[in-house]
Amino acid sequence: MKYVTILLLLTLSFFCNAQDFQYGLKSGLNLSSYRGENDGGQYKLSGYAGVFAIYDFNRNIGVQTELLYARIGHRDTINNTKIKTSLRYLQVPILFKITLNNYEQFKFLIGPQIAYLIDSKITIDGDSDTSKSNFEELDYGATVGMEYEISDQFSIDARYYLGLSDFYNQSKVDSSAKNSSFSLGMAFRF
User: Fold this and answer.
1) Which has the closest alpha carbon to 180: 144, 135, 130, 155?
2) Residue 40 DSSP code
């Protein structure tokens, strides 16, 4: 958690001195699963909400940092055993925004993301376990997407997150799996 906080504070301190600084609120839906040994599970629909800050270096390139509370997970059936996983993260994506000259309303987004596990719940055939020890505290990966600015204050975006780290604690769970999610969201700039 301290690494996420330090990263966020450093990024926000950079933005606070900038004249081309914007900030706002955002929320949306996640459709998540995983990639791993069992070819991924069934997708699970959940949501996210948070804040963001944007700094535009020039007309075509900017950077956007976000602090999001997000729920992701999956459902799976392995050897006739039904498994439902729900993970709650504090996510910090740092996205570069690229604008094409003739299409200023469209922004391409790409960048790294780090997340800290706040809470977890795994249900196996109806029995729940809320122990976080089965999962790694940190998750990291890459995000790619596109944003459309409806107006100066509102925008919508679509993204894909590709997890690069195993989310299972390998000392507790003998399985390799990485988070994977699609998201659709809306943002409001002040």
Assistant:
1) 144
2) -
- The two three-digit tokens of residue 109, written as one number: 């987004």
pTM of structure: 0.83
Tens of pLDDT, residues 19-40: 578 999 999 999 998 887 666 6
Domains (range + CATH), the chain: 2-189 (2.40.160.20)
- CA–CA dist 73, 59 (Å, integer): 37
Residues β-bridged to residue 183 = 30, 159
∠ CA 54-117-173 to the nearest 5 degrees?
A: 140
Name 16's Cβ contacts closer than 8 Å, sequence gap at least 6: none
181 CB-contact burial (10 Å; exposed 0-12 / middle 13-18 / buried 19+): buried
- Comparing 37 with 136, the larger pLDDT belongs to 136
Residue 77: band (very low, low, confident or very high) from pLDDT cuts 50, 70, 90? confident
13 Rama sector, left if φ>0, alpha if ψ -120 to 50, beta otherwise: alpha
Nearest to 24 by CA among 62, 56, 60, 67: 67
